[in-house]
């Protein structure tokens, strides 16, 4: 074999090998920002568990003209232990410990993995602490704060084809910083809850990869049905998620970043001892990974004990 043909074949081999090591960018992602939702009694601690289900369909464009388009489906089931500890009248500390179960199916080939995700700690401060109007009809509350997400989840999973897929890792391999603010306004039994969150992602030095920063904003309306000392609260609203492009070796990653808009229909039950809730979030509009990633309806449930 001549030196020219050897160099040409070596270039082709290295190109294919690089795609195998870092191949699938169009995938759903289990590691996302945290939302508090409508929290129970402000002055009580709580400990509980939250469950969430996420699903995605990913279209993988062919690399070469002789290749065919591939479609994969990813499912993420997350059970998260979370709690709140109240300090004084205005400070609240939160902790989140997620356990992920991830499955991916492509061309009748399936992979599954599960385990501990990235643990997050956050602190919130009540800027407006449940201020009530003189007639007692209006109540509003504003709290803001931030926290840190630690790289406790495994982030070195490779497929049998030696692909490192960023979207199906249990953790990001980075230390990230969170900012959050939520506001509640209530007139008698009718209210609105608004929330905004921002996650500043760090750099995964092992893979030389960085997930794009993420914004999450949500708005919910609700009505409180009193039942003695307990209450039932249906809610209706929506949520917008935005993500910047990921980067690999300092360059923007194609087929990453975008926005998704989800609706929200849910119901929560509150008592003096515990709270429980369930919600469904259908996808309304989205353009993620240049339209190659489609999210399905999300399902959420939670239960917490107050003390």
Tell me what you see in this structure:
- The chain is mainly beta.
- The protein has one domain (3-306): Beta Barrel (Porin), CATH 2.40.160.
- It contains 1 helix and 19 strands.
- The longest helix is centred in the first third of the chain and has 19 residues, at 3-21.
- It is elongated, with a radius of gyration of 22 Å.
Main beta sheet: strand number and arrangement? 12 strands, antiparallel, barrel
Question: What's the domain count?
Answer: 1
Cα shape? elongated
**Helical coverage, percent range:** under 10%
Q: Which CATH first-tier class would you pick?
A: Mainly Beta
Distance between the termini: 76 Å
Count of strand segments: 19
What integer value in Å does the Rg equal? 22 Å
Q: Strand-and-helix sequence, N→C?
A: HEEEEEEEEEEEEEEEEEEE
Query: Main sheet: which strands, in order across?
Result: 1-2-3-5-6-7-8-10-12-15-16-19
Question: What would you give as the CATH superfamily?
Answer: monomeric porin ompg
Average pLDDT level: 88
Outline the fold blueprint.
Layout lengths: L2 H19 L24 E15 L9 E18 L3 E16 L2 E8 L3 E13 L5 E12 L26 E12 L2 E11 L8 E2 L3 E10 L1 E3 L2 E14 L3 E2 L2 E2 L5 E13 L3 E8 L1 E6 L4 E3 L2 E9 L1
Antiparallel strand pairs: 1-2, 1-18, 1-19, 2-3, 3-4, 3-5, 5-6, 6-7, 7-8, 8-10, 9-13, 10-12, 11-12, 12-15, 13-14, 15-16, 15-17, 16-19
């Amino acid at each position: 074999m001549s030196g020219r043909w050897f160099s040409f074949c070596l270039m082709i081999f290295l190109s294919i090998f690089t795609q195998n090591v870092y191949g699938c960018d169009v995938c759903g992602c289990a590691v996302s920002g945290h939302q508090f939702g409508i929290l129970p009694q402000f002055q009580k601690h709580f400990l509980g568990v939250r469950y969430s289900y996420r699903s995605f369909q990913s279209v993988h464009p062919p690399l070469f003209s002789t290749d065919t388009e591939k479609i994969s489906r990813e499912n993420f089931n997350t059970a998260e232990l979370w709690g709140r500890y109240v300090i004084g009248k205005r400070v609240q500390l939160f902790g989140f410990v997620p356990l992920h179960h991830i499955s991916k199916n492509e061309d009748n080939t399936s992979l599954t993995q599960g385990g501990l995700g990235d643990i997050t700690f956050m602190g919130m401060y009540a800027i407006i602490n449940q201020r009530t109007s003189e007639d007692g009809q209006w109540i509003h509350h504003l709290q803001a704060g931030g926290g840190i997400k630690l790289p406790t989840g495994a982030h070195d999973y490779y497929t049998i084809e030696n692909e490192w897929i960023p979207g199906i890792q249990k953790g990001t391999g980075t230390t990230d910083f969170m900012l959050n603010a939520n506001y509640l306004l209530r007139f008698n039994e009718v209210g609105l809850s608004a929330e905004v969150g921002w996650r500043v992602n760090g750099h995964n030095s092992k893979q030389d990869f960085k997930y794009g920063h993420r914004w999450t904003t949500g708005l919910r309306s609700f009505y409180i049905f009193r039942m003695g000392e307990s209450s039932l609260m249906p809610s209706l609203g929506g949520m917008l998620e935005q993500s910047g492009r990921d980067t690999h070796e300092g360059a923007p990653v194609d087929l990453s970043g975008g926005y998704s808009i989800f609706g929200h229909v849910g119901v929560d039950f509150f008592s003096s001892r515990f709270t429980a809730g369930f919600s469904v979030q259908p996808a309304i509009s989205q353009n993620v990974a240049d339209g190659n990633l489609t999210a399905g309806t999300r399902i959420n449930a939670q239960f917490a004990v107050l003390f």
